[in-house]
Amino acid sequence: MRILVVGGGGREHALCWAIAASPLCEVLYCAPGNAGIARDAECVPIAADDVVALVEFATEQAIDLVVVGPEVPLVLGLVDRLDAEGVMAFGPCADAAMLEGSKGFMKDLCARHDIPTAAYGRFATAEDAKAYIREKGGPIVVKVDGLAAGKGVTVARTIDEAFDAVDQAMNDQVFGDAGAELIIEEFLPGEELSFFALVDGKTALPLAGAQDHKAVGDGDTGPNTGGMGAYSPAPSLTPTLEDEVMETIILPTVRGMAADGYPYRGVLYAGLMLNEGRPKLLEYNVRFGDPECQVLMMRLRSDIVPALVASCDGTLETFDLRWSDEAALTVVLAANGYPGTYEKGTEISGLDKAAATGATVFHAGTIADDGKILATGGRVLNVTARGTSITKAQARAYAAVDAIDWPGGFCRRDIGWRAVAQKR
Ligand code: AMP
Ligand code: GLY
Known about the structure:
alpha+beta; Rossmann fold; Dna Ligase, domain 1; 4 domains; 6-stranded antiparallel sheet; 5-stranded parallel sheet; binds adenosine monophosphate; binds glycine
């Protein structure tokens, strides 16, 4: 098959790495890719959100399967446009991508189909939002409706903090149009968990569980990021809990979306809170998590390509995937300053030494320049290793991290701490 992966981060590097290993893959392109992806795929200089150019490339190059990594092209309708041209594409159509593109759409779906989630209200004016916050009190959560690159959520301890978040979104318009509507919701305490399933419009196949570390600093301190590291399996995702998540959250969503006229295909990523022992849905993403995808791909033993095709053509029901018994853990190396402003163009060396330890280094934000590897993004490398336990995978990942010489970057030193503390 001739395959095109869309995106240029660590998630797309892991997808390219897994797809390139498939005997079904004859030619692999990635748009735009990065310096690490260039080892596994031919990189094409088209931006991930340039829908017109991507469709043109896919038709001209007679691509058999397009795999869309990030949410923005999905929400912009890339899959609809590829469908119209007869090109098979992995990922939801624009209507179904509203599960991530509009938090209000997602919450209303939950309300219609009885899916457990935090109690909420939707508001189009600051005045109404504040009246609701005053009535409910703190702690309370303020979310902008639209896409905000993971930055549109404020967990407010007090009414004043919540009011500030409302003013930023509605008066200062920090998030532009994405903040024109707000969702105010009940604060749910508990442990967070990422749950992934492949979906083909009618049925869903659960993937392995993973846990992410959102805060920038050790001990889960400091501002939130896109994710500083992840590991799989997630010890708290027991088989009983997995069944409950499938029965009460994932399958009602798949059936509800089909019944409402927006059949969902692609990967469904549920952000869950284990609240008083019960899973509740915090958010849906319509793509793989980044960096969760990296640990899932490291543990996947089956060929990924037939699974992606089954999601596209509605044949997941008879499908099964095999996973390694080993754990996988990834550490994100980010540019100094991230998630605030950070320096670009700093040189990274020691990547060969890191690979020689047996770890796999996925690239998230790099370019090759005159034989050197330079950092171009906030999150730059994902140093990923397997082990017979999460603790062993962690030791191997950090041994590889220590082989990398990059004064311009940093990482958390405690990825996997919760599992390691439980001697997992
Ligand atoms: P989201 O993008 O909706 O997942 O929110 C980002 C982060 O905010 C989540 O990963 C949680 O840590 C936190 N969060 C979101 N909603 C809630 C909630 N209702 N209660 C507690 N924490 C939340
Ligand atoms: N790791 C969180 C995300 O991909 O949204």
